[in-house]
Write a structure and sequence with these properties.
Layout: E1 2-3, E2 18-24, E3 40-46, E4 51-58, H1 65-76, E5 81-84, H2 89-97, E6 101-104, H3 111-123, H4 128-133
Parallel strand pairs: 1-4, 2-5, 5-6
Antiparallel strand pairs: 2-3, 3-4
Length: 134
């Protein structure tokens, strides 16, 4: 797994892979953070066989809310799913328009468990919304 802010972001992961962006915060451990206050995104490639960490993408701050959303979207534009603990309506709309599905999760569920559950769903018959992400 790499930690680089100058990395070239691939337009799409390979077929059969769901790229997941997990909003993180310093000290948050393995739980998702709110979109607006996350300090980084952990990027994972999930297949029916594995969950692979790809990279950690640090978030640089913008002063205006619109700058924050645009900057964060640029970091996750190659992902199909965004895992967060909270997201505002306008930000969720922008994320969705970018072709990324925002998924709000309970902070009591660890990201490791959530990603493993996603892998298990891929192993069986994924629901239509997830098949579209493949």
């Amino acid at each position: 797994m790499t930690d680089t802010s100058s990395e070239v972001i691939a337009p799409h992961p390979p077929s059969g892979v769901v790229r997941v962006a997990l909003a993180g915060h310093h000290g948050a451990g393995h739980w998702a953070s709110p979109f607006a206050s996350c300090t980084h995104f952990m990027i994972y490639d999930v297949t029916q066989d594995s969950v692979n960490p790809v990279t950690k993408r640090p978030v640089s701050g913008g002063d205006r809310v619109s700058d924050k959303v645009v900057g964060r979207l640029a970091l996750i534009r190659d992902s199909r799913i965004l895992v967060i603990s909270a997201i505002g309506g306008p930000a969720a709309a922008q994320v969705t328009r970018a072709g990324i599905l925002p998924v709000k999760v309970d902070t009591e569920i660890s990201s490791v468990d959530w990603l493993e559950n996603l892998r298990q769903v891929l192993e069986k018959k994924p629901p239509p919304w997830l098949q579209m992400a493949l």
